Amino acid sequence: MTTEMVEELGPAGMSSDESEVDENTKKTTYRIKRRLWRARACKDRLIVIDSDRNITNAHGGARPGKQPRERIRTPTSTISKRALKVGCPKNYYSTGWVSNLGSDRMVRELKWKETKDLGSIQVD
Predict the structure, then answer these.
(1) To bridge 12 with a disulfide, which of 36, 45, 72, 85 should be the other Cys (CB 3.0-4.6 Å)?
(2) Is 0.85 topped by the overall pTM?
(3) Kindly report the CA angle at 81 between 76 and 83, in degrees rounded to 5?
(4) Residues contacting residue 99 through CB under 8 Å, at least 6 positions apart
């Protein structure tokens, strides 16, 4: 179910980030931009996917290649200006965001599909 959700959201449904360099450590961190149109159920599943990466090898050492970037998610992060993904199932869109659209015409332009069961997940 989650794989299908990721495929339906596609690149347009994923969050982007903006980088900043810490003055003291000179380390680059990436702040995740918020996608207000995306439902909490989708966001929760994407957080689980992001956190489920294997960063060590069989011996506990670092895996070869470039290490994953540090991405920080905060409730006050910048709102993404990228276009939303049209044509997703109805429950992929935030009900609060949809209710603020203001007109039936704007809601129809979402061209949403039938609601899909996303199953259940446990978020820490």
Answers:
(1) 85
(2) no
(3) 130
(4) none
Q: Which of 72, 80, 109, 79 is nearest to 12 (CA)?
A: 80
* Helices 40-51/2-9 angle, 10° precision: 110
List, as one string, the DSSP characters of 80-107. Answer: P-SPPPPS-BGGGB-HHHHHTS-SHHHH
Residue pLDDT, tens place only, 31-84: 899 999 999 999 999 888 887 776 777 787 877 777 677 788 888 889 999 999
DSSP helix/strand/coil, 67: coil
Token representation of residue 119:
């199953």
Longest dimension (CA), the chain: 57
Q: How far is CA 8 from CA 19, 28, 67, 106, in A?
A: 27, 31, 28, 21
CA dist 122 and 47 (Å) reads 11
